[in-house]
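Provenance and format

Records in this collection were gathered into a single text stream. Each protein contributes a sequence line and a token line. The two records reproduced below are adjacent in the stream.
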Amino acid sequence: MPKRSILQVLPALNAGGVEQGTIDMAGYLVEQNWESWVASAGGFRAHEVVSLGAHHQTLPLTTKNPFCLMGANKRALARLIGEQNISLVHARSRAPAWSAYFAAQKAHIPFVTTFHGTYNFSGEIKKLYNSVMVRGSQVIAISHFIKDHILAHYSRWVREDQIRVIHRGINTDFFDPARINQQEINLFLEKEKIARDARVWLVPGRVTRWKGHEAVLRAFAGKVSEKDVLIIVGDESKEAYVSELKNLTQALGMTPFVRFLGHRQDMPLLYAASFGVIHAATDPEAFGRVVAEAQAMGKPCLVSDLGAPQEIIKDGVTGWTWRAADGDALMQKVCLLEALPHDARASLVHEARGRVLDMFSLGSMCQSTLALYEEVLASFPKTS
């Protein structure tokens, strides 16, 4: 019997959660002895797909030009499906999903999607465009929040029993506190001129307005103690906003207590060095990868009460939710965490990591996705 073959389709392979999930799944399929294909416009991470033993096909899938969507890309994908005997197509983004949808229909093979975000829409035309992401035999929602969003806005195109919640998974071998020793933490603190007994509050994530950094700075201003240090870490490509935050930090008299570290590859070390992790988004997030990473590292998280990050923590046990953009609400949880007895904190560390291992690990995500592929393939009507 020939190997079953999966084709994942996305615009490009650069930085981002969609790209990471695609690469993770591509490698897992190879490990499970499936043929694994990815079609995209390429990108600096395309070589990772090939290095894992999967195949990459370069196509202009970043385009939103309707003639390419319905024409050249559809034909190119249909040709790839036929030549490589693709069993199932998995689309992960709207623009290439339309081409993939029609190519899969032409080949009479199953079409599956992952609904990765809330996908803005301002009218019925944009909602119709977005609707391709719920036109699969099965639709993967990356959180219960996203499932609820789909049912609220796209129920004319999808039934509830077609939606499967499969949370995003993180690499729990990489995000493992056992990998980081105290000497590494001390060297990091020394380099950043942070005292070894400091209370480090980590605010991870892309530095953009809706991530709520301003609310965190204003909450700590005037209440910060000599022991507290805020570390803001993440992509700083929004330079004007970063400058605005640095100016606010100075105006609030917080400069000695705040570090802006930009994008870092050594996030496990930063989590390990922290006392607590703050998630402050002022708009709902579809998942909240940094919360899962922090919990995998055994760190308590203070999470704004919007979107899916609330699903990752166990409120009152491995972290606490707080009313988004409400500085007083955040500081109440900060004080609660500071007062947590040593035994209770040790229990939190154990439970937080165990929860991620059970529900938000890379292995769990990949196994659940593969099981869904198998179900869809088994139930898809065969051509005569």
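Adjacent record:
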Amino acid sequence: MKNRSLLAIAVTMALTSHITLAAPFGSFDPRSMAMGGTGVASGTGANASFYNPALLAGDNIKFHLELPVVGVSVADPDELVKDLDDFQNGNELELLDQAVQQFNLQPNSGNAQAVVDNMSNVNNTVKTFSNKALEGSLFGGSVVSFPVKDYGMAIYLSGNATGGAQLDYRDAQTVDSLNSELSELITLQDAVRNAATQQDRVAALLDLQNFATSSQFVQYDPVTETATITNVEPESELQTRAIAIAEVGVSFARNMEFSFGKMAIGVTPKYMRVSTIDYVANVKSAEFSLDTNQVDSSTFNIDVGVAKRYDNGVTAGMVVKNLIPQSFETANTTGKGDIRLNPQVRFGIARSTVWNSVAQSTVALDLDVTENEPVGFDQKTRYLGVGAELEIYSTAQLRLGYKKNLSNGSYADSVSAGLGISPFGLHTDIALSASPNLEQISAGLQFGFYY
């Protein structure tokens, strides 16, 4: 019965596997991130291609070169990391190890039962880790924009990797059944040992014999009175789904006259190189092959946006990203099918105010009209974001924001903040966004210049 701890070790080994990444609307440029993810009406030439190409046709936007724009986001909506930390810092594994050592020193029924009880405790804890996803995104890009009074153009390159991973713990029933058989064996051995009469002893030995022929996981030898664990095949899996998209796009915008006044219209045709990864790692044999787990494809798509500027500093905008719905094939080892990129529609409104020669401000609100479909194991999202920027001497910017997920799910609201420094046309922007309990954290960094 020394092998009783083997399955407990196999169970916990599933938790040491690799984890990947998942993502929302837009990019990771720090200005938008710091302002609650807004940008459809409040964007500049530095990020118009990512949020709303119509904003390139603006009165006050200068030439921009942004290199690089980088960002990262990690989400743990079900607090898996906290659960793992609690498990690691707890004493359940230590108690199991102590019970096994004590049984090895004194192999009696009491110590054997202690091993069974502690294995059950570990199993119950590991059950809570199953189907809790870790998610995130990585982004990198650069932009060159040439906006003027009524026209605008921009060229951008970007790469975005997004996805998620989760443990599918399938061995809970196996461990429960194993523990049940071990407990039954201990009870039967005690019955033989404590039999009051020869008749009771014979009956108990017969029960032991029946157990030896019927048990699934515990192989008992009545002659040597020893037990070994057999037929235990770990079935738990680590499931990973991800999509990496490299884009090259050219944005065009123009102010046009309508019966209700002037309005900007912008389009971004783009070439997309797409790689999907769909991977299942079994606890007992984890092998990854690009030939079987990665599928590459390429396609074209288009973003379309409009923006209306008013004399009082208000701008209203709307954008449809990925106007052409598309589906990308996966290896489908997880059984979750292909990854779809559906059109994303977002509305935004912003107001800019010049207070005096020192300070000016911008407040903005963005709302997802459509829900964003999950890519990995994350949940649907539909965000409402609000943000504000205070600019001093056209050199320093302080930004704050708030973002709320309106879809059902476990994503917490997040708050954000950021700083910008832009002396002599050179600028550096940083941003950090996080939920109150750090279930989701994002950070962005950007360098560039304008004139």
